[in-house]
Design a protein that fits this description.
The structure holds two protein chains of two kinds. By secondary structure, chain A is of the alpha+beta class. Chain A folds into two domains: about 50 residues, Multidrug-efflux Transporter Regulator, Chain: A, Domain 2; about 170 residues, 2-Layer Sandwich (Heat Shock Protein 90), CATH 3.30.565. Chain A is built from nine helices and eight strands. Chain B has a three-stranded parallel sheet with strand order 1-3-5, with no helix packed on it. In chain B, strands 2-4 form a two-stranded parallel ribbon. Chain B is globular. The two termini of chain B are about 25 Å apart. The chains are: A alpha+beta, B alpha/beta. Chains A and B meet through helix 5, helix 6 and helix 9 of A and helix 1, strand 4, helix 2 and helix 3 of B.
């Protein structure tokens, strides 16, 4: 999918809308006629378009936030994000993360549940802050991250259109060639793209948290996807297509 | 000397925030007596990450080995973060 921001800013064609929502053409036409999800035409006989914000709202109602994030990092060209999910700066992310911690902790049904919230927020903090640490001054197109929480599915979603794990680690490990190799190194070795600074524990910490708790993690960067769950001793990494720009993390608990 | 980390926030996650806290703590450290113990109190800290801890706890452990004591570390994010940064000592 290639949304050309320059020619249709904030708009989606009907085929792009099909791809993004998973709805069929006939459903979209029916919903258009009923006024459920309205399209518009630039001229009386021109093509149908949808406002991006309407589709974001539809996906939000459906609570399909991970699809939204996935599309955002898979798009070849940068598209604007809804303010609901967009954290342009670290400060915005920190405020939203703390707010989420507060809400989830208040709703926690037991001490064990609250303990789980504590490590989930710590993981999200590490992953989100990693995006800012490793792309500062080097964002390829859109600075900042996608940060969303799906309360129905108990899912946290973080994504960035940064340089990705391979490019970052290549600075200190020029021999790395593939995204899958880089992902493995990032989750197993204490190494940082910002060496010689004492860094590089973040994703090892994330691995430890996931394998010791009832949590599932999908972490995508470039052409590689890592899947990790409680009790896993080995990393499960596979090649994926289409590739993602930067990183996408889905945390489910 | 006791330092209550909740004075720096309840959710301690980013490196810049850890670095800021470390800098803000320097005047207090300079006033410390020789051989005085440093008690780091995690009471009311809800979340700690290794990134924040790397900027505050790691330099403290490096500069004052054997003089740092941790209090109220039951929270699992605190426990896991301390374990991972202490492995690097």
């Amino acid at each position: 999918m290639n949304i050309k921001k320059q020619s249709h800013p904030g708009l989606l064609t009907i085929s792009e809308t099909v791809e993004l929502t998973g709805l069929s053409l006939s459903t979209l036409r029916r919903w258009d006629a009923l006024g459920t999800l309205k399209s518009f035409r630039k001229s009386p006989h021109g093509n149908r378009y949808y406002h991006r914000v309407d589709i974001d709202n539809y996906l939000l109602q459906k609570q399909d936030i991970s699809t939204l994030a996935k599309q955002w990092v898979q798009n070849k060209t940068a598209v604007e994000l809804s303010e609901t999910f967009y954290c342009q700066t670290r400060d915005v992310f920190s405020v939203r993360l703390e707010r989420l911690q507060n809400e989830l902790s208040k709703a926690a049904s037991s001490q064990a549940h609250d303990d789980l919230i504590s490590v989930i927020i710590a993981m999200a903090g590490e992953i989100g802050n990693n995006s800012f640490d490793h792309n500062l001054g080097n964002w390829p197109d859109i600075p900042g991250i996608f940060f969303g929480y799906n309360s129905k599915l108990n899912q946290l979603i973080l994504a960035d259109r940064g340089r990705g794990i391979l490019t970052t680690l290549k600075q200190v490990r020029p021999m790395l060639k593939k995204d899958a190799q880089a992902l493995k190194v990032a989750f197993t070795e204490t190494i940082s793209g910002r060496a010689p600074e004492a860094r590089g524990n973040g994703l090892k910490f994330v691995r430890k948290i996931v394998t010791n708790n009832p949590i599932k993690l999908w972490f995508l960067s470039g052409s590689a996807e890592l899947h990790l769950k409680q009790g896993d001793e080995k990393l499960h990494i596979r090649e994926i297509s289409p590739t993602v720009r930067g990183c996408l993390a889905i945390i489910k608990y | 000397m006791q330092i209550d980390l909740n004075k720096f926030g309840k959710v301690l996650t980013s490196r810049p925030a850890g670095k800021e806290a470390w800098l803000a703590f320097q005047p207090k450290l300079k006033k410390m007596k020789d051989k005085e113990m440093i008690e780091i109190n995690f009471n009311k800290v809800a979340v700690l990450t290794p990134s924040w801890a790397d900027e505050f706890i790691t330099p403290l452990l490096r500069e004052y080995p054997k003089r740092v004591k941790f209090l109220n570390t039951k929270n699992p994010s605190i426990k896991a973060s301390l374990q991972i940064i202490r492995k690097e000592e």
